[in-house]
Amino acid sequence: MAGPNDGALGSTFKVVRILQAISLISIVGMAANFIAQIVSNNNEPSEVLVGTLSVTCIAVLYCAITFILYIDNILPFLLNTVMDGMLLIALIVVAAVVGKPLSYLNCQVIGTSSVSESTYQLGLELKKTFSKDGARVNYSNWIGANKVTCLEMKAIWGLSIALWYVSSTWNNFQDAL
Asked: What are phi and psi of 73, to 5 degrees?
């Protein structure tokens, strides 16, 4: 991989951008899959999923552009620091909004007999939502629909937190370049 020789910080920049891209593409794939499933049932996806997908798609493009500019040795570091800070704020919002109802949810008990009553009620509510064409899916109810959905949403939440941490840590090192 060519590019400027900025030593350990330059190598760290490349590694961080690659890890960010991998995490962001994973989030895009999972969120897009959820939206596709909801839309295929003729329903409207929640704002949380659409917002998550929008922010992560923009972040993927940003990571690719800054990586290319860095390799070509034309990346303005001050502007990059400001833009990384803005991306950090967006990732904090995504992590907070996605994680608010998830933090109270235990995915391991979904589908067990101890919660069969609440699962039955949730199933009835989701069935009512899905039976109406164009109805908006309630995010808080949808994440508890089954164990797989819960675990995948927790993965999106965890990756968002990891991206927030990587972005905030990188902003501290970027001034040294």
From this structure: 65, 35
Report angle CA 92, 165, 161 to the nearest 5 degrees.
50
User: Which one is predicted more confidently, 3 or 115?
Assistant: 3
Which tens digit of pLDDT belongs to each residue from 65-75?
Answer: 999 999 998 98
153 vs 121: CA distance, rounded Å: 21
User: Which pTM was predicted?
Assistant: 0.78
Token look-up 């329903």 returns 43
Smallest Cα–Cα separation from 48: which of 105, 95, 106?
95
CA–CA distance from 13 to each of 4, 68, 78, 124 (Å)?
11, 12, 14, 49
Three-state secondary-structure class, residue 135: coil
Q: Which residue has the tokens 């840590």?
A: 169
Euclidean distance between CA atoms 51 and 158, whole angstroms: 16
**pLDDT tens digit sequence for 10-36:** 888 888 889 899 999 999 999 999 888
